[in-house]
Amino acid sequence: MAARKKSSVDAVAQLEKELAQVKAQLSKARTQQETDAQKTVTALTKEATKAATKVKSARAKLATARKKKTPAAAKQAEAAKAAVNTAKAAHDTVKADLAAAKQTLAEIKAANKLANEHDKAVAKAEAAMAKVQQAAARKEAARAKAAAKKAAAKAKAKAKKEAARARAAAKKLAARQKVAAKKAAAKAKAKAKKAAAKAKAATKKTTAKKKAATKKPATKKTAARKSTAKKTATKKTGTRKTAAKKTTAKKAAAKKAGARRGRPAKATPSA
Question: Where is the composition biased (Basic residues) (predicted)?
Answer without folding.
Answer: 56-70, 182-264
